[in-house]
Amino acid sequence: MPALSEIITALEQAYPPALAESWDAVGLVCGDPAEPVTRVLCCVDPVAETVDEALDFGAQLIVAHHPLLLRGVHGVPADTAKGGLVHRMIREGVALYCAHTNADSADPGVSDALAEAIGLRVTGPLAANEDGVTGIGRIGELPEPEPFAVFVQRVADALPATVPGVLGAGEENRPIRTVAVSGGAGDSYLKQATAAGVDAFVTADLRHHPAGEHLAGTGPVPALVGLTHWASEWPWCAQASAVIGHAFAGNVDVHVSTRCTDPWNVRAERTSS
User: Fold this and answer.
1) Which of 5, 202, 260, 264 has the most CB atoms within 10 Å of its CB?
2) How does pLDDT run across 39-57, given as a tens digit for each residue?
3) SS (HEC) of 75-108
4) Per 3-state DSSP, what percentage of the chain is helix, strand, and coil (rounded to 5)?
C-alpha cells in the first residue's frame, strides 16, 4: 500500500514540476504525504462534481490537470467555492495533486494523449523547449490523407461528446495528413502551427478574432478544428492513470473520471426563420 508521497514521486517523474510555466501552480494542494493511498481518481477539473465522484469511488487522492488555486490566495474559508472544496477534501481524507503545464510540456503529455486519441503518429512538439523533445503541443500525421470534413468527424468520434460539439473551419474536401494539436486553449499557437506547415490544427477555446485573422492570412494556413477545453484534455486522464497503474500495479485502483466538467450544458438551435 503506497504512501501519497510515493505516488507523487511517480507522477513527478512523468510530469517534472520543472517543466511548469513560471505562473503556474502545480503539485500537492492538500493531503498528508505519509498517508496510504489505495484508490485514485484522475480528472481534468477539481470541482464539486469530481470531488463527489472521488468520494463515491472511495478515493484518497484526486489527480487533476487544472489547478484549484492557480492565483495567490490569502485564505480558504469554507463559505467560498474553492475554500469549500478544500475543507471538504480535508474532512473526507482526500488529497489533491495537480499537474498542469508540466503535464502539457512533458513527453508524453497532454497533447500526446490527444494525438493518440485522434489516431496521429507524433513526430515532435509544436512549440519545443530547448531539448527539442518536450514543449507545448504536438505535430503528428495520419496514416493516410483524408478530406477535412472526414477528419473533423474523426476528431468528434475520438473524444467524449460535449454539448457544443466539434467545429471545423476550412475547405471540406481539403486533404488532411499532417496535424498539429494542443490540448487546452491553443489559439496563441496559431503562428507556430502555420510555420510548421501542417494541414490542420486541433485545439480548444478558439476565439473569434484570432481564428478569423488566421484563416484570412496570406499563403496556405492550417484548417482549424475547435474543441471544448475539457474534451481536449480528457484523454490525458487515462495517461495519468497509466502512470500510477504501472508504478503500483495491483496495489492502487485508479479510476478515470467520466463526468463532463465543461460549463456548457444547454444547446439551442434557432427554430424560426
Assistant:
1) 202
2) 999 999 999 999 999 999 9
3) CCCCCCHHHHHHHHHHHHCCEEEECCHHHHHCCC
4) 35, 25, 40
What lies within 8 Å, CB to CB, of 261 at 6+ separation is 43, 44, 45, 47, 49, 50, 230
Q: What is the pLDDT of residue 273?
A: 77
pLDDT at 72 over 80: no
Q: How far apart are CA 184 and CA 103, in angstroms?
A: 12
pLDDT digits (tens, 9 = 90+) for 20-32: 999 999 999 999 9
| Separation of alpha carbons 72 and 70, rounded Å | 7
Would you call the peptide bond into 108 cis, given omega within 30 degrees of 0 as the criterion? yes
The grid cell for 200 is 490542420
Beta bridge partners of 121: 141
Q: Are 97 and 63 in contact (CB under 8 A)?
A: yes
Confidence (pLDDT) at 74: 82
Question: Residue 249: which residues within 8 A CB-CB, separation 6 or more?
Answer: none
pLDDT of residue 196: 97
Alpha carbon distance 194, 189 (integer Å):
9
Q: What is the pTM of this model?
A: 0.96
Which residue type is seen at 19? L
CB 225 within 8 A of CB 152: yes
Q: Which residues of 134-155 are buried (b: 16+ CB within 10 A; e: fewer)?
A: bbbbbbbbbeeebebeebbebb
Q: What are phi and psi of 182, to 5 degrees?
A: -145, 110
